[in-house]
Amino acid sequence: MTLEKKIISTSKAPEAIGPYSQGVVSNGHIFLSGQIPLDKNGELNHGTIQEQVELIFENIGHLLETQNCSFQNIIKLTVFLKDIGDFDAVNSKMIELLEEPYPARSLIQAAALPKNVDVEIEVIAGLNENSER
Q1: Is residue 96 assigned to a domain?
Q2: What is the pLDDT along the chain (133 residues), one digit of tens a residue?
Q3: Into how many domains does the chain fold?
């Protein structure tokens, strides 16, 4: 049996900056690569942690939209922070952006992140029943 993978991408989010895809659809799920606070042109956002998280979720939203999905489709989030002291600020922004029932989540302080950013978020989402498989 061959595992089917459909690569997803959008020009509304930053391009992959290495040997990976913006996202992959497989077996009824969407797997998004870790998103850092880059705008669609690849420019780094050096604003507050909340502004960075908002931009990351904007990019996540654009990628989910390619599959007719939204934040409500998110099953699991993994948040990587340079400084665990940003935990409360990230939580408060996520409360603004997400609705209950909230997805499962891990939040980890990382020693280093790509481009020395403050935050990276990766997502696993489920496709809607009427979405392509």
Answers
A1: yes
A2: 678 999 999 999 999 888 999 999 999 999 999 999 999 999 999 999 999 999 999 999 999 999 999 999 999 999 999 999 999 999 999 999 999 999 999 999 999 999 999 999 999 999 997 655 4
A3: 1
Q: What angle do CA 108, 19, 39 make, to 5 degrees?
A: 65
Q: Is 89 among the domain residues?
A: yes
What are the CB-based long-range contacts (under 8 Å, 24+) for 95-100?
Answer: 97/53, 97/54, 97/57, 97/71, 98/71, 98/74, 99/71, 99/72
What pTM was estimated for this model as a whole? 0.93
- Its domain, for residue 13, covers 6-126
Cβ atoms of residues 64 and 90 within 8 Å: no
Residue 19: give its domain's CATH number: 3.30.1330.40
Residue 131 lies in a domain: no
Residue 133 within a domain: no
Q: Rounded to an integer, what distance in angstroms lies between the CA atom of residue 6 and that of residue 76?
A: 20
Q: Are the C-beta atoms of residues 48 and 90 closer than 8 Å to each other? A: no
Q: How many CB atoms sit inside 10 A of residue 60's CB?
A: 23
